[in-house]
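Usage example:
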Amino acid sequence: MMTLAEENYLKAIFHLEYESGGEVSTNAIAEKMETKPSSVTDMVQKLAEKEMVLYRRYKGVQLTEEGKKTAAYVIRKHRLWEVFLVEKLDFHWDEVHEIAEQLEHIQSDELITRLDKYLGSPDFDPHGDPIPDEHGVLKRTSKKLLSELDKNQQGICVGVKESSAEFLQYLDKKGISIGTKITVLGKEFFDGSMVVEVGKGQFFISLKIADNLFVQTA
Amino acid sequence: MMTLAEENYLKAIFHLEYESGGEVSTNAIAEKMETKPSSVTDMVQKLAEKEMVLYRRYKGVQLTEEGKKTAAYVIRKHRLWEVFLVEKLDFHWDEVHEIAEQLEHIQSDELITRLDKYLGSPDFDPHGDPIPDEHGVLKRTSKKLLSELDKNQQGICVGVKESSAEFLQYLDKKGISIGTKITVLGKEFFDGSMVVEVGKGQFFISLKIADNLFVQTA
DNA sequence: CTTCTTTTTTAGATTAAACTAAATATATCT
DNA sequence: AGATATATTTAGTTTAATCTAAAAAAGAAG
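Running the assembly step on the lines above writes:
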């Protein structure tokens, strides 16, 4: 069995591998986990003994198949709970992360099987991130930043990159929430600002905003 | 903040105080927690420093008001989650204890407020035990064992004392589940066996069965 | 009111997960 | 290549929660 701390490390390594493609460094893990590199070394050695990662001193870490499966399952649980919190308990999408961070460690396969069915086996969480299936496989997603869209393209808002209270308030004011369709009417080259259409309105959006908003394209 | 272990000790002490009325002994706690008395002493001293219990060496322990409130809240969370598991996820009543044992430690007042509302603010859990309200107050319950009923009395099944798979199968076969009305038609003095009416049927029940079934009386 | 038993506490050790400080690899730069 | 900087690991501590074994207090019995 995995401890809570071990599960959190596996999750962090999983995300880092996804971002970088290859092996993951001790420092990168330490930064993501908000801990010291020496603590990471300790833990990584324990995970290597449990055959959850391949570890070469001074070189880096890589998840084994077993490690990947375990990490994906924790992420699956996290995202399913987020769906539950938003869909059933009416939480706002930016309030659920910390609670899901706790719920993801509840140990009961039966619970997750039933929760998944109860929620209608969703493919994405409230932030637009894909939910791994029972085998740890992630659905391919076409999620990208609004700033990456070109003139005349459109996308559906699926989440935010960093959610400060002010930013979410701004979105509310502009009538943007999950599922809102956004069309790029114009794009300035020199500062990346845009004019977008949302519902019946049109307005200006700065790069800072467009760089912080995830959309899904067709 | 309370740690997971501390919360479990408070819960155990709460239940023991309820059973015995007065102060609780180190040994009693050790037995309930399935741990050694020396571990209990350590923990009880920590809880005393946090002013969750009153502790007099060699004498015993007693919850403070703060300790009672904290324990009742953990129990409230446990029982609300049990309702969720049975009502929403269709778990059987005897499968939910261990999962609720984990869920009860999730820290988020907002979560519990919303969960309670979502479940319709239930007063009892699937075992017929009362759910403490937001202030830690327990609804008075008239829950008793079926074996305590006299001839011609009736009760509504609210739970079981010890739930083995065989026993629950037996109940299923006889058409008894939560909410079933049971009327005592006759009671043998020398062995405590009964004849009961359930729905349209009448049948014989041994003391062993009647001693294991909780009913609520008017 | 001593003696014996039981209960409770103390002292010292262990494990998981973190930390600090020091040592050792690896990487970079002139 | 040699010097310096950076990354990583090791060694030794700390804290929470447990344990075993030994000591001390309380309760029971003659």
